[in-house]
Known about the structure:
The protein is an alpha+beta fold. Helices cover 21% and strands 33% of the residues. It has four helices and seven strands; from the N terminus they run ααααβββββββ.
Amino acid sequence: MPTAHVAxxxxxxxxxxxxxxxxxxxxxxxxxxxxxxxxxxxxxxRAVNDTIGTDYPVDVYEDDTAVHVEAxxxxxxxxxxxxxxEQGVLTIxxxxxxxxxPQGTTNxxxxxxxxxxxRRFTMPSTLDENNVDATMEHGVLHLTLHKKEEVKPRxxxxx
Length: 159
């Protein structure tokens, strides 16, 4: 089996030569898993966090009875999501705290940090702010904002 011997020799030569490269000192997995903006976020803090990667996809559509909102919030629980509708402004706010690792452990990759997002939408005045349904299913928030019952015009008799 000369081919196996040759392959093993090439592998050993690669390991010896690549061991001297400075990049080999970095955990190879980090090259693919680290957030490329982590250094910037550490340096500039919240101002950068608020502008890089903090939006989430939202669909808003309307039918005859309601306005529907679907917001993708993967990784958030129902308790971490806050929805308000006040004076025609719908606010969806979600906040997740980083999980604490057990004492005595070493992080190899730590990408799960505190994360907070907020989106606001101006809603039509035809909505009943007291009649809103909200459910969360598979990381998607579903809101149904029901419209007000239309007031029928009253016939006024002229005397």
